[in-house]
Write a structure and sequence with these properties.
heterodimer; A: mainly alpha; 3 helices; flat; B: 814 residues; alpha+beta; 4 domains; 6-stranded mixed beta sheet; 5-stranded antiparallel beta sheet; elongated
C-alpha cells in the first residue's frame, strides 16, 4: 500500500486563530447581524450602515441624517 | 475614526500575514551607547544580553521604544526633551540613530541630529506603522502597570492594545444619538400639540353636529369620511342637495354656489372668510419672549472678542490636539510660535482651549437651534398674513397697501451668527420688531374688516347658520391637515427611536460577546502561564472579566477556593508582578499582528530562581514562533537562560566593558573557552567552580532528557544525580556500558577533586592547582560531553521515537 505523503506541519501555538480583528467584527455586525433583524425600520438601519461604511458614524451625523429623513417623509 | 476604519479596510487580512522578525538591531550615539554596537539575531530565536547596572543594555529597549512608538516613556516628563535621546558626548556633527534590519532584508533607520531633527528611513510599505500598534516591550518598571490600574483604566488600556477602541466609540455614538432623538421628541411637544388639535376638532365638529363628538373618533387617516359625515349631517338638516361622492372641497364649493347666490350674501360670506383668516393669525406672546431670549444669549456669547476668537479657533485647536497625539509631540517648544514652554503645560493649554471652544460651540449650536424654531414660527405667520392680505385685495378691498412680510432679517441674523460676526458689526439686527409689525398689520386688517362689516347686511339666519357651519368645516379640514403632519412626524420619530433603541441593545450584546470572547481567549493563556509560574500555589482560574459594558475590566481568580476580584488584596507583590508578566505575554500572543518580537527588560527582578525556571519553560515551549530580546543585569538568571535554552538556537551577548565613550559588547564565550581562559590566568578556584557548575548543569539536563528515575527531592545536586544517571545509561541508551571510555570516565570524574568535590562546590577554598591538573579536569569534562555529542557534527544527541539521533541526521541505536 502506498504511503500517504503527509505534509509535516509544526504545531504552532502562536498561529492558531484567536482574536478576530475589530473591523471584521464590526463589519459582521453592520452587514450580517442587522440584516437578519426583521423588526427594524430599514430606512433607519440604512442610515447607520451608510455612515458606518463611510467611516462617519458619530452621534451628530446620525442625528442630522435621521432628521433629514424625517423632513423628507412629511414634506 | 474615519481614517482608522478606512485604513483597516484597506489592510484587511493583514492578520494572516507572516509576522516580522529582526535580523539585527544597531545603535550608535543613542542614550548610553556611544560607538556603533549591533546585536545580530541572524536566524536565532532570541538574544540574551547581560550587562552590569549602568552599562547601557536598556539603551537597546529604549532604542526599540523610540523607533516603534516614537517615545521613551521615562523621558516624558518635565525637563526632558528629544535632545536627551542622544549620547551625552556624541559629536554634534554626527547623527545618533537606531537601525533594525528585518528578516526580509529591509532596513529601518531613525536618526536624530544635534538640532533634534528626526529622520526616518523605511521601506514604502511603512512597516513602522504596524510595529507601533503591537505591544512589544515589557520592562520591570512597567510590570505592574496594568495590574494596578482601576477597572476603567484597564478597559482603556486594553482597548488601546487590542485595537478594539472603535467598538465602544460606536456604542457611544448610538447611545448619544438615541438620547438626542428622545430630547428632540420632548422638545417637539408633539403629543400635546396633537391633543390640542383634536380638542379643537371635537369642539368645532360638535358645534356643527349639535352633539358631543368623541375624541377617540378623531383619526387623521379617516378625515375625509369625518368631514363628509359633517357635510351629510348639514345637508340633511337644511335639506341641501349634495353629491357625497365628490371631493369635500367640491361639495363645499357647490353648497356655497347654490345657496349664496345674491351679491349681499356673497359679500357677507367673503367678509366672514376674511374674518376667519384674520382670526387664524396668532402671534404667540412666547414668540417675543423667545426672540428676546435668543438675543440675550447672542449678546452674552459675543460680548467679548476673546470668546469669538476661541470659537473661531476651535477647529485649529482640534487639529493641533490630533497632531500632538499623532506625532506624540514631546518637545518643550510651542510648535506654533517657537517659544519655550514645558510640554505638559502646552498640552494642558491646548486641552483648556479645546474645552472652552467646545463649550462655546455648544452654546452657539443651541442659539442656532432656537433661531430655527423661531424662524419656522415666523414663516407660518408670514404666510398667513400675506395670504389674508391677498384675500382681502382680491375679494373685498381696493385700497389695501400690501405689506410684504419677508424673513430677510432673521436669515441675515442666522448668517451673522454662523460666521461669527460681532454684534456691533452685524448688518441687520432687528428681528425683535417682527411681532410688533405683525400686530400693526393685524390692527389695520381688523380696521378694514370693521369698516366693511358696517356696510354689509346679515343674510337670513338659515344662511348664516350654514355659513358658520361651512366655516367650521373648513377649519376642521385645516386642523386635520395639521394633525396629519404632526402624526406623521410623531410616527417617524417613534420608528427611528424604536429602531435605534433596538440596534443599541443588539450592539451592546455584540460588544459584550466580542469582548468576552477576546478576554476568554486571553484568559486561557493568562491562567495557563500563571499556573506554570506558580505550580504549587492554590490559585486557580485566573482571568479577565468584562462584566459591565463600558464600565471596565477586572482580574478575577480563585484564591484557595475563594472567588477574588481584587488580586491585590491577597497576592504578594511578586505574584502581582508575575500576573502582569503573564498578562503581557498573553496579550502579545493574541493581539500582536505585525511582529513576533518580544523585548523583556529586567522583568525577573522580583521572581525567585524556581519561578524563573518556569518562566523559561513558558518562553521555550509557548513562544516557539517568537523572537526574544532578553536584557538582564542578573548573572544567575543570564546563565540559567543560557543553560536551559542550550541547543535551541539562542544567542547570548555580554557588555564586556562600558566607558562613557566606548562600549564593548561581545558574544558570550563558550563554556570550554571560558574555562580555558581561566586556566591561562592560573585561576584554580575559578576552574574548579566553573567545571563543577557546568558538570552539574549537564547532568541535570541529561537526567531530564532521558527521564532518569529519581527519588523525589525538592532540589537535586550533582551527587544525587550522578549514580542514577550512570545506572540508567548502562541499560537504556546507545552507550556501551562495557566500553572503557564509559567505565573509566565515570570513575575518573567521580574521583577528581576539582570536578566532584562537594566542599569546593559549596564553599570554595583557596586552591593551589597546577595547570596540568586543571587541563586534566577540563579534558575529563570534555570527554564526558562528547559521550552525548554527535561524532560527525558535535551537536547534542537527542532521543526520538526510534532511538537517538542528531539534527544532522546521524542515528544512534540502543
Amino acid at each position: 500500500m502506498k504511503k500517504k505523503n503527509r505534509k509535516k506541519t509544526r504545531k504552532s501555538q502562536s498561529n492558531k486563530a484567536t482574536i478576530q480583528p475589530c473591523e471584521k467584527l464590526l463589519n459582521n455586525f453592520f452587514i450580517v447581524t442587522l440584516d437578519k433583524q426583521n423588526d427594524l425600520d430599514q430606512r433607519t438601519v440604512k442610515v447607520l450602515k451608510n455612515l458606518y461604511k463611510k467611516g462617519q458614524l458619530n452621534a451628530d451625523n446620525i442625528t442630522k441624517t435621521l432628521q433629514e429623513k424625517r423632513t423628507k417623509s412629511y414634506d | 475614526m474615519q481614517t482608522t476604519l478606512q485604513r483597516r479596510y484597506k489592510k484587511k487580512g493583514q492578520s494572516h500575514m507572516i509576522k516580522e522578525s529582526l535580523k539585527e538591531i544597531t545603535l550608535e550615539g543613542f542614550r548610553g551607547i556611544f560607538n556603533k554596537n549591533t546585536l545580530e539575531f541572524g536566524n536565532c530565536r532570541g538574544i540574551i544580553l547581560y550587562g552590569d547596572n549602568g552599562t547601557g543594555k536598556t539603551s537597546f529597549s529604549e532604542g526599540a521604544e523610540w523607533l516603534f512608538y516614537n517615545r521613551i516613556e521615562k523621558l516624558k516628563r518635565e525637563g526632558c526633551s528629544d535632545a536627551d535621546l542622544r549620547h551625552l558626548k556624541f559629536p554634534a556633527s554626527n547623527e545618533s540613530y537606531v537601525e533594525i534590519k528585518l528578516t526580509d532584508g529591509s532596513i529601518i533607520t531613525k536618526s536624530i541630529n544635534n538640532d533634534s531633527k528626526v529622520i526616518i528611513k523605511q521601506p514604502p510599505n511603512n512597516p513602522l506603522e504596524g510595529f507601533s500598534r503591537d505591544n512589544i516591550i515589557l520592562s520591570y518598571t512597567k510590570l505592574r502597570d496594568f495590574v494596578d490600574q482601576t477597572k476603567k483604566q484597564k478597559l482603556v488600556s486594553f482597548l488601546k492594545v487590542s485595537g478594539y477602541g472603535d467598538i465602544p466609540t460606536i456604542r457611544d455614538a448610538l447611545q448619544r444619538s438615541l438620547g438626542k432623538i428622545e430630547q428632540e421628541i420632548q422638545k417637539a411637544v408633539l403629543e400635546s400639540q396633537i391633543e390640542g388639535i383634536k380638542d379643537q376638532i371635537v369642539d368645532k365638529a360638535g358645534s356643527v353636529l349639535g352633539e358631543k363628538v368623541e375624541k377617540e373618533s378623531i383619526n387623521p387617516d379617516h378625515s375625509v369620511n369625518f368631514i363628509k359625515n359633517l357635510l351629510k349631517n348639514l345637508s340633511e338638516k337644511h335639506k341641501l342637495e349634495i353629491d357625497l361622492t365628490n371631493k369635500t372641497t367640491d361639495i363645499i364649493k357647490e353648497i356655497e354656489n347654490t345657496l349664496f347666490k345674491g351679491e349681499e350674501v356673497k359679500d357677507f360670506l367673503q367678509l366672514e372668510e376674511f374674518q376667519r383668516l384674520i382670526k387664524n393669525i396668532k402671534v404667540d406672546k412666547k414668540l417675543s419672549e423667545r426672540i428676546n431670549k435668543v438675543q440675550t444669549e447672542v449678546q452674552r456669547l459675543f460680548k467679548d472678542k476673546d470668546k469669538i476668537e476661541t470659537l473661531s479657533f476651535g477647529a485649529f485647536y482640534r487639529t493641533g490636539k490630533e497632531l500632538f497625539e499623532k506625532f506624540n509631540y514631546s518637545k518643550d517648544i510651542c510648535p506654533f510660535c517657537d517659544q519655550a514652554i514645558a510640554n505638559d503645560e502646552l498640552r494642558e493649554l491646548i486641552d483648556n482651549k479645546l474645552r472652552l471652544s467646545s463649550n462655546l460651540e455648544k452654546d452657539k449650536k443651541q442659539i442656532l437651534d432656537d433661531l430655527e424654531v423661531i424662524y419656522q414660527d415666523m414663516r407660518i405667520i408670514a404666510q398667513k398674513v400675506n395670504s389674508t392680505q391677498d384675500y382681502y385685495k382680491n375679494n373685498l378691498g381696493k385700497s389695501l397697501t400690501f405689506q410684504d412680510i419677508n424673513l430677510d432679517a432673521i436669515t441675515s441674523y442666522k448668517h451673522d451668527i454662523v460666521h461669527l460676526i460681532l454684534p456691533q458689526e452685524m448688518t441687520t439686527k432687528q428681528i425683535s420688531n417682527f411681532p410688533v409689525k405683525i400686530n400693526d398689520i393685524l390692527q389695520q386688517l381688523l380696521k378694514l374688516y370693521m369698516g366693511q362689516a358696517k356696510n354689509v347686511g346679515k343674510p337670513s339666519s338659515k344662511i348664516n347658520e350654514i355659513s358658520e357651519s361651512i366655516g367650521k368645516i373648513k377649519d376642521i379640514e385645516l386642523l386635520f391637515s395639521q394633525l396629519k403632519k404632526r402624526s406623521v412626524i410623531k410616527m417617524e420619530f417613534e420608528t427611528q427611536r424604536q429602531t435605534l433603541k433596538r440596534v443599541l441593545s443588539l450592539y451592546e450584546q455584540f460588544e459584550k460577546d466580542s469582548m468576552d470572547s477576546v478576554l476568554r481567549a486571553m484568559s486561557n493563556d493568562l491562567n495557563n502561564f500563571y499556573k506554570i509560574l506558580h505550580k504549587h500555589d492554590n490559585h486557580e482560574d485566573v482571568r479577565l472579566d468584562f462584566s459591565d459594558i463600558g464600565r471596565g475590566i477586572t482580574f478575577k481568580l480563585s484564591f484557595h477556593g475563594q472567588e477574588v476580584d481584587q488580586p491585590i488584596k491577597y497576592l504578594s507583590d511578586s505574584h502581582l508582578n508575575s500576573l502582569g508578566l503573564c498578562f503581557f505575554l498573553a496579550s502579545v500572543r493574541h493581539l500582536n499582528k505585525t511582529t513576533n518580537l518580544i523585548i523583556l527588560d529586567d522583568v525577573v527582578n522580583s521572581i525567585d530562581a524556581n519561578h524563573r525556571r518556569q518562566l523559561i519553560e513558558i518562553i521555550r515551549d509557548h513562544f516557539v514562533d517568537y523572537q526574544f530580546l532578553i536584557l538582564t543585569h542578573d548573572r544567575t538568571w543570564f546563565e540559567m537562560l543560557i543553560q536551559q535554552l542550550e541547543g535551541l538556537s539562542w544567542k547570548s551577548y555580554e557588555i564586556m566593558s562600558w566607558k562613557l565613550e566606548s562600549v564593548i559588547i561581545e558574544p558570550t564565550k563558550d563554556k570550554i573557552e571560558k574555562v580555558e581562559s581561566l586556566i591561562n590566568g592560573s585561576n584554580g578556584e575559578g576552574v574548579a567552580q566553573h567545571l563543577r557548575i557546568y558538570l552539574e548543569q549537564e547532568v541535570k539536563r541529561l537526567c531530564k532528557m532521558f527521564h532518569v528515575p529519581l527519588k523525589y527531592q525538592d532540589n537535586y545536586r550533582l551527587e544525587d544525580l550522578w549514580q542514577p544517571l550512570k545506572n540508567y545509561l548502562k541499560s537504556n541508551t546507545y552507550i556501551d556500558p562495557g566500553s572503557g571510555s564509559f567505565k573509566g570516565l565515570f570513575n575518573d570524574i567521580q574521583t577528581n577533586r576539582y570536578l566532584f568535590n562537594l566542599d569546593l562546590h559549596s564553599t570554595p577554598q583557596k586552591l593551589t592547582i597546577n595547570k596540568g591538573d586543571m587541563q586534566y579536569a577540563l579534558d575529563k569534562y570534555k570527554d564526558f560531553l562528547s559521550l552525548f555529542r554527535c561524532r560527525k557534527c558535535t551537536k547534542a544527541i537527542k532521543p526520538n521515537k526510534k532511538g537517538y539521533s542528531c539534527s544532522c541526521g546521524e542515528q544512534f541505536s540502543a
